[in-house]
Amino acid sequence: MESLLKNRRLEKRLTLEQVGEMVGVGKSTVRKWENGMIENMGRDKIVALSKALNVSPLDILGIDKPKESTTKVILDNVFDELKEKRQLKVVDYAKSELDDQNKVVEISEYQTEKEYPYYDDAVSAGTGQYIGTSQKETITLPVDFDADFVVPVYGDSMEPDYHDGDYIFVKLSVDLSDGDIGVFELYGDTYVKQLVIEDDHAYLHSLNKKYKDMLVDADSDFRIIGKVVGRFA
Question: Does residue 56 sit in the same domain as residue 152?
């Protein structure tokens, strides 16, 4: 992944800053993508980066086919013929399939179970939920994440990566970077969102495009609770 994106950028004689301007992100985010950190990359960014570097979205997602196969060539050609709205749907589906393949854990893969602190009220992927009123319990799950607590997700604003009813594993931290998925408190309500940082403000971004970004600035009643480090469906 690193060699593909970096080599394509260098072939086109573009700097990190120039690619960032074309895609709408900072140079640090482009550098993370070149280092293979694409887990929280939105579909709009995947399409924009593929156009900026003239690479296939499938290559960005790391969906490789054998060189002797014509499947990838056919997919690339079909993708180029689609209008942008339909391209976004293709990226959504491919990213969802890749995330399910990489993130969804089968119980049979684990021999042991682990207990986690658990809050019974869901964090919202939509309307907001205050975690401070939740009752702390214990839940046992067949996965092992370095997490401080587990909460269920409510709503569809973080689809296709996080679905209603999923469990998310949260590591307490205030040190989140641009593009990280985290749990945040905004005006008393708690959300799971993607953090997008700009010059003098930030946004809580929903992966589902039907939801608007939520502005965070110096006047906002806002705090970072922690970073999402895993998911269990």
Answer: no
Locus of tokens 């480090």: 229
Q: What does the pLDDT look like over 79-128, one tens digit per residue?
A: 666 677 676 666 666 666 666 655 544 444 444 578 887 876 545 444 44
Same structural domain for residues 126 and 66?
no
**What sign does the CA torsion over 78, 39, 117, 177 have?**
negative
Residue-level length of the chain: 233
Domain count, the chain: 2
Residue partners of 196: CB distance under 8 A and separation at least 6: 178, 179, 202, 203, 204, 205, 213
Give Cα 115 distance to the centre of its chain.
Answer: 25
| Both structure tokens of 182 | 């985290």
Q: Are residues 44 and 95 in the same domain?
A: yes
Same domain, yes or no: 115 and 225? yes
| Residues 125 and 190 reside in one and the same domain | yes
The whole-angstrom separation of Cα 147 and Cα 170 is 5
Q: Is 13 left (phi over 0), alpha (psi -120 to 50) or beta?
A: left
Give, for 144, the enclosing helix (H) or strand (E): none
Instruction: With 0.90 as the threshold, say if the pTM is over it.
Output: no
The domain containing residue 43 runs over which residues?
2-103
